[in-house]
Structures are given as C-alpha cells and as structure tokens.
Design goal:
141 residues, mainly alpha, cell membrane, DoxX, transmembrane helix, membrane, DoxX-like_oxidoreductase
Length: 141
C-alpha cells in the first residue's frame, strides 16, 4: 500500500479558502471601517471585558482595520501569517463579545469557527499561489 500524499491540489484548496474568506472578511469589515468613530467606539467597547477599557475608539478602529485589511492580505497571501494572527485575535475578541452579551451558541459560533480556521491557516501557510510565495519563495518554509 502506497502511503504517499495524494493531495495534489492542496495549494489550490488553500487559494480558494484564502480568497473566499478574505473577500468575506473585507465585506464584513468595510462597513465597520466606514462607520466612523461612533461605530469604532461601539466595537472597541468589548476590550473592557479583558481589562483594556481605555481608548475604545482606537480598539474599534483596529478591529475594523483587522477585518478589512486582514481580509485583503489573506486573499492576496501577503504577510499571510501576520494577517492570520490579527484575524485570529479579532475573532477571539468577537467571541468574547458575543458570549458576554449572553448570545447563545448561534451568536458566537461564527466568530469561534473563524478563529479556528485562522489558527489552522497560521500553521498551514498560504500555499504556493500567494504573494508571499512569489516574493519570498522557499525562505518562508
């Protein structure tokens, strides 16, 4: 029995996952980014739950940037692992926010699932169809 890796299209799978998720996070992040300081302050208020209650507008702006900019970097496969870390942290805080509001599983499951996806992608890497691979090649492996 040959136990060789038969996943010949894993790089294509990573590309589809990256682009699909990246675009979706850009779509979710843009209204938050365009919402301005009032929206950002509302978003950033969740940081109080982890002892960082100062500067909610700043934290909300950072969350909006993380979703939109992180989605863009994810889709392009540029600074991929940094984008995964930022998106992972943002989804952990989104999970905290939903749980602290008393939302049930249906309320926080999307954020928690996304956090697991970003954690997995952090380890898997962007694949060969990415700007990171194009620019740095084998130095990233």
């Amino acid at each position: 029995m040959n136990l060789a890796n038969r996943y010949r299209f894993h790089d294509l799978g990573l590309l589809l996952l990256r682009v699909g998720l990246g675009v979706m996070f850009m779509v979710h992040g843009f209204p938050k980014l365009a919402g301005g300081p009032e929206t950002w302050a509302g978003l950033g208020g969740v940081m109080d739950k982890v002892g960082l209650g100062f500067a909610p507008t700043f934290w909300g702006f950072m969350a909006a940037i993380a979703e939109f900019g992180g989605g863009l970097l994810l889709a392009a496969g540029l600074w991929f692992r940094a984008a995964c870390v930022v998106l992972l942290l943002t989804m952990v805080m989104a999970t905290v926010m939903h749980v602290s509001k008393g939302d049930g599983f249906g309320g926080y499951s999307h954020a928690l699932e996304s956090a697991f996806v970003f954690l997995g992608l952090l380890f898997a890497g962007p694949g060969k169809y990415s700007l990171d691979e194009r620019l740095a090649g084998s130095r990233l492996r």
